[in-house]
Every structure is written in C-alpha cells, then in structure tokens.
Fold:
Amino acid sequence: MAKKALSTVRFTAVGSIMNKTIVSINGKATVADAVKLMKERKVSSLLVNRRSQGDAWGMLTRKDVVNKVVDPGRNPKEVKVFEIMTKPLIMVSPGLAIKYCARMLHHAGIRRAPVFDGKEIIGIVSNTDIFNAIDV
Structure:
C-alpha cells in the first residue's frame, strides 16, 4: 500500500494493509519447533491451527516464548505450543477502518490480530502494519 497522510489512512480498511502471509503451527508441536519455524520464516508470531471446525484458533508470539518458557526456565523441547498460546483470539474484519482497529488493539493490550472474512483467516494485522501505513 502507498503511504498516506494520517488523516486519510485512519479510514483505510484493514484488508489493504494486513500481512497476507500466515504462518501456522499445530498446537501439539513443541515450543522448540515453533521457535525454529518463527526464525526460518522471520515472523514474530504463529497462528495455532484449530483442532476442529468448532474450535478456536490460537496465537503464539515471541513474547509468549520469552515470558512463559525462557523466564521460568522451562525446556522448549518439552513444552507444547497449546500450553502457552493465547486462545481464543480477538479477530478483525478486513473492512474495519484502521482507526478502529488501532483502538481495539490498544484497549485489548495486544499487538496483532488475525483478519477473518467470515469463512477463514485471510491475514494478520499488527500495530507495525498500521504504523508503516502512515506517511509523515
């Protein structure tokens, strides 16, 4: 997306700035596997796949790994992703204005949210995506 002035970008749809590359992992994988995947794909979070249609997606972030595995001294080869992931997730619609998405991220105390079109997750929007959309 071309950078725009803040007054314009505030009403731009999330779908136009989201990251369409989604890297996912199974909840039964080890945290060591997740860290390896995150480093290989150069991402700071992974979408954790649902176990079934009726289940909720989860999210694993670098912060989860540091705070829930490294800090307490747990072995990443023994800890499963489902033990430390965030679930359920707050999701946003691709048509949501960036202004409202930024507000929601701030109030929820999160840095990223999956973009859900009603059928599937089509991307992830982060505070970095919102920041990078602004031309000053």
Notes: The chain has six helices and five strands. The CA atoms of residues 70 and 76 lie 8 Å apart. Residues 31-41 form the longest helix (11 residues). The chain has a mean pLDDT of 93.
